[in-house]
User: Fold this.
Amino acid sequence: MKRLLLTCLLVLVAASAAWGMNLRQGFGKYRYGDSCDTIFAKPSFAVERARPLWNAQLQMFGLAYDPDTVAKSPFILHYDRDEKPEFDGVPLNRVYYGCNKDSGRFSLVVLVHDLLSVGKLVEKTTAELGAPTTTTMIQTIWALPDLYVQIDQVYMIIYDRRAGKI
Assistant:
């Protein structure tokens, strides 16, 4: 009986760990579409002053700090001050969870990493999502029907396209 219980527990842990890194569903323990008021209400969460902006001409995200530009962003970024983030074993500096201002739903993730992590992040994302749509010297992009992923020298940005149009 103990062996069966231990086996079930190991399967449950493996399944939850595998779900945590399924980029098509969410990031970590947070699922796209969940209410930000509920999932980011813990005292350890704070709001970041930077905001992601979609550049339609370049077809990519950028982060803005200028107050006038920040006001144009459809997102608010939250981060957990106590979190020690990683992406499938790759250590990260910080993870920002983006919530749509209009709907209040979780739909975007900004992973801050160092330059040495780029290759590992691209490798792990390619293993999960397949070959990238676009690759340049400074960024790799997956423009999929349900997901947009951008990896550059400082950020990995994941946007759930089901949450709305950018």
Q: What stands out?
A: Residues 118 and 153 are 7 Å apart (CA to CA). The longest strand covers residues 94-100. The longest helix spans residues 2-20.
